[in-house]
């Protein structure tokens, strides 16, 4: 009984703490070495802490606090020092969390609004039903690690959580998208399969709709063409079946060949000849007229 009560109390306390956790910061992004974010609440007792983690080759360092941005009430943080790290080929990842009354929010990873050494340059091209993600391979990161670098592409509808689409080495087109809907994409470098640096901030494009005039024009062209093609096919098929029926039968007959071992010499010859049977008959030499009834034969 005591264990059950303890478990119920722990669940109640956990739910209470979860409901009172401060909301995480929104729109966390780096813009020219200045990290910015938007507060998710208007409470004044909320503070923010910025952390960074450098990465060199395959060695991942622990997350460290940015000394000037620990429990700060500000909505920005100067991260110029990360530029020196990137010049040493140490790509840096940044994240921010909120704190209120000793309770901490979840961490939110920062993105980069401008492509740099550790962030891909991305642009979008919207087409009917699809979206092309254009990835530039002219960055220093790609040139130095072309054999081991990939792009991790995330996409989704605007306002929804972006989901991973694929890991690609070049530009890619996402098909089967809803027309008139806005889709967003963000991309992050992968080196030896691990995330490197900040991802690009989400960029969005609307999938164009098919114009009504163009749709009607297509119908006006396609319907007569299909009708004429059908009529022409029926006429040709009828002509062939009526006037070329014999040739069709000849073509459909299975091929036949005389066996190679068949020789005329092998045909047996008859041993006796058959003569037609002679007809048996009597020869009449004298014909005497009979007496006609009622008349006498002249003497």
Q: Total number of β-strand segments?
A: 19
Total helix count? 5
End-to-end separation in angstroms reads 163 Å
What is Rg?
48 Å
**Low-pLDDT stretches:** none
User: How does the major sheet shape up?
Assistant: 6 strands, antiparallel
Approximate strand percentage:
25-35%
Report the structural category. alpha+beta
Helix content: 10-25%
Describe the global form: elongated
Mean pLDDT: 80
Order of helices and strands: HEEEEEEHEEEEEEHEEEEEEEHH
Identify the notable features of this structure and list them briefly.
single chain, 299 residues, alpha+beta, six-stranded antiparallel sheet, 5 helices
Blueprint of the fold:
Layout: H1 2-20, E1 26-31, E2 34-38, E3 47-56, E4 59-60, E5 64-65, E6 76-78, H2 81-87, E7 91-100, E8 103-104, E9 108-109, E10 111-112, E11 122-127, E12 130-135, H3 140-144, E13 149-157, E14 163-168, E15 172-174, E16 182-191, E17 194-196, E18 199-200, E19 203-206, H4 212-243, H5 245-252
Parallel strand pairs: 1-10, 10-18
Antiparallel strand pairs: 1-2, 2-6, 3-4, 3-5, 3-7, 7-8, 7-9, 11-12, 12-15, 13-14, 13-16, 16-17, 16-19
What does this structure look like?
- With 299 residues, the protein is an alpha+beta fold.
- Helices cover 24% and strands 31% of the residues.
- It contains five helices and 19 strands.
- The longest helix is centred in the last third of the chain and has 32 residues, at 212-243.
- 15% of the residues are buried.
- The model has no long low-confidence stretch (mean pLDDT 80).
């Amino acid at each position: 009984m005591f264990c059950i009560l303890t478990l119920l109390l722990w669940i109640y306390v956990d739910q209470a703490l979860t409901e009172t956790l401060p909301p995480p910061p929104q729109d966390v992004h780096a813009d020219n070495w200045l990290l910015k974010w938007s507060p998710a609440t208007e409470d004044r007792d909320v503070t923010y802490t910025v952390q960074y983690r450098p990465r060199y080759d395959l060695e991942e360092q622990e997350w460290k606090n940015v000394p000037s941005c620990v429990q700060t009430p500000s909505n920005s943080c100067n991260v110029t020092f990360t530029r020196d790290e990137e010049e040493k080929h140490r790509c840096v990842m940044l994240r921010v969390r909120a704190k209120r009354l000793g309770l901490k929010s979840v961490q939110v990873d920062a993105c980069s609004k401008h492509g740099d050494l550790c962030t891909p340059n991305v642009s979008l091209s919207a087409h009917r039903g699809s979206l092309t993600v254009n990835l530039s391979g002219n960055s220093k990161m790609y040139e130095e690690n072309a054999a081991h670098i990939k792009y991790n592409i995330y996409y989704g509808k605007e306002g929804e959580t972006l989901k991973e689409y694929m890991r690609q080495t070049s530009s890619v087109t996402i098909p089967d998208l809803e027309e008139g809907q806005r889709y967003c994409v963000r991309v992050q470098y992968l080196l030896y399969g691990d995330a490197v640096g900040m991802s690009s901030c989400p960029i969005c494009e609307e999938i164009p709709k098919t114009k009504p005039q163009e749709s009607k024009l297509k119908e006006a062209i396609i319907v007569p063409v299909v009708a004429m093609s059908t009529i022409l096919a029926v006429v040709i098929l009828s002509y062939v079946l009526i006037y070329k029926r014999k040739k069709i039968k000849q073509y459909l007959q299975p091929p036949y060949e005389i066996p190679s071992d068949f020789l005329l010499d092998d045909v047996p010859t008859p041993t006796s000849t058959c003569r037609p049977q002679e007809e048996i008959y009597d020869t009449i030499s004298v014909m005497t007229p009979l007496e006609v009834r009622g008349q006498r034969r002249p003497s």
